[in-house]
Amino acid sequence: MLYQYPFSPPWLCTRVKNHLIGFTQTAILDDMNAKNTRLWLRVELHVHTAASTDSLVSPQKLVEYCQQIGIDRVAVTDHNSIEGALKAYALAPERVIVGEEIETTQGELLGYFMTEHVPPGLEPMEAIHRLRAQGAVISVAHPFDRVRGAQWTAEGLLSIASHVDAIEVFNARCLGNHPNQQAANFARAQALLTTVGSDAHSLVEIGQASLYMPPFEDARGFISALQYALPRNRLSPAYVHLFSTYAKLVKRLRKGKTAQP
What we know:
disordered N terminus; 21% strand; single chain; alpha/beta
């Protein structure tokens, strides 16, 4: 059964109840009246393409689908690669944010507004340093989901908390909401901004978790807009993980056929 958070359109809100974290955030909207908040963007911050080993989505199909369903900005965050993000950005620079989901020696980081690839296998602080050097925004991916291969420890999270911009407090691919609530509690305790993401590995998952945000153009504007972001989230059904399994199988078969004499 899909989980739906209560949601109010941004143009109806000047005082926002963050249902994900459990506290009331007062948005200072002196320059955002009812008319221009209708121009807020729907933003998807965690999507994969065929550049990830467990997805078959082409950058072109991703861009077309986002336009079709009303995703105004989409961060392409492939596993340990920005290849798919760069291809998508070339197709729609006004819609695509170049990002990456980076596997560190502990858990995974999400980089946004990237210009250079950050390789996997680095210590978390080294990965953070490389992201900061290129002016990227940094969030921590699904930090309390114990089903994932790469997992953060409590000590590891605390050690990087002051060096990142945000925590991903809702990931639609979690097999239950408890890991998301733990992440939300951690973000609140550390006074960090929050992101959400569908973690989509197929087209039908895109938009499961998104934010409504004031318009932004770059990393600095994104951080400012994130303070007022409103979530629209629901968990994906468990069977979406089969899409990733299928993608891996298809790629293995293709690789095997290519290797044959």
